[in-house]
Amino acid sequence: MNQTTIKDSFILKGGLGLHSGQKTDLYFFPAEEDQGIVFYRGDKKVKVPASYRYAVPSTLCTTIEKDGVEVTTIEHLLSVCNGMGIDNLLVELHREEVPILDGSGYEFYCGFRDAGLKYLGKPKKKIKILETVSFKQGEIAIFVAPSDHSNFTFSIDFDHRQIGQQEVSFHLTEKNYIEKIVKAKTFGFRKDYQALLDKGLVKGGSNKNAIILDENGDIENIEEMTWLNEPNLHKILDQIGDFYLFDNLRIVGDLFCHKSGHASHLAFIHHLVNECQDHFVVLEDD
Ligand SMILES: [Zn+2]
Questions:
Q1: How many folded domains does the chain comprise?
Q2: Distance 11 CA to ligand 1 centre (A)
Q3: N or C end of the chain: which has fewer CB within 10 A?
């Protein structure tokens, strides 16, 4: 199969950044082969590739930076690109943060679906895992093992009655992603909300764009949920987005994450690239 991009340009208007609360439009443009997913800060005239090479470790969102110019909260948009098999894309914005929209990947998906995808002249590439790579960081465990498929497993463990310990495994195909993952909204704990606000974060957060887990072990806005295990499905959405930082190539292997987040996903990619070069190979699609 060949690489893809979008057929037509389109705009998503006026979304708010989850953390900054700032409003920006997003302009999506087709891109050539081997360009990957690139953000363009129109206000600063700087292009930042959505690659681990430009990613900076951060816990609450995935951030890339070049020449002192950042683009933040890119993970849901990247997830939809990986999920829909979009290899090349230019995304222009005029603030630092990609809007949170409804907290899931759904509005990005609708934009791409309506614009349509087209094939380009070069084969798609993927990262084939040849040997198991594992990584531990305190309670966090991540490993990837050889497989003929792209399988994502996420295990969470939160001290909350409705969540607790859960594990979900997901076989990534375009169809499965659209049916089972793209609508999974982000989530947050009511007990953390004020402290995050005090730090100048989550200014664009609301009970419309995040599932809110309260101190009594209940869900404040259960009517916003599509699935009862949605927080776990959202962790898979984030995982699929963060691992697309690996040069916007889909990993073919069984990827398992326990209690990990954006910063440890990035650390794992660096571990794979720097210390395990013979454990994977970049292949062209047939
Ligand atoms: Zn997320």
A1: 2
A2: 22
A3: C
Per residue in 221-253, pLDDT (tens digit) is 999 999 999 999 999 999 999 999 999 999 999
User: How many A from CA of 286 to the centre of ligand 1?
Assistant: 32
- Domain span at residue 49? 2-124
Q: Could you report the per-residue pLDDT of 49-69, keeping only the tens digit for each?
A: 999 999 998 888 999 999 999
pTM of the complete model? 0.97
Dump pLDDT digits (tens) for 117-148: 999 999 999 999 999 999 999 999 999 999 99
Distance, CA 121 to ligand 1 centroid (Å)? Answer: 33
Which of 105, 124, 143 terminates a domain? The answer is 124
Which CATH number is 268's domain given?
3.30.1700.10
- DSSP E strand stretches across the chain: 2-6, 10-16, 23-29, 37-41, 46-49, 55-56, 63-66, 69-71, 89-93, 117-123, 125-129, 133-137, 140-145, 150-158, 164-171, 187-189, 211-213, 250-258, 280-284
Looking at the fold, whether 14 and 109 belong to one and the same domain comes out as yes
238 alpha carbon – ligand 1 mean position (Å): 5
**pLDDT over 70 for what percent of the chain?**
100
**How sure is the predictor about 286, in pLDDT bands with cuts at 50, 70 and 90?**
confident
The reply to whether 106 and 199 lie within a common domain is no
Report pLDDT for 21.
Answer: 87
Q: Which of 124, 156, 187 is where one domain is finished?
A: 124
Catalytic residue positions, numbered? 262
Distance between CA 22 and CA 9 in Å, rounded?
23
Q: Are residues 210 and 70 in the same domain?
A: no
Q: Summarize the confidence of residues 19-36 as an average pLDDT.
A: 95
Q: Are 265 and 257 in contact (CB under 8 A)?
A: yes
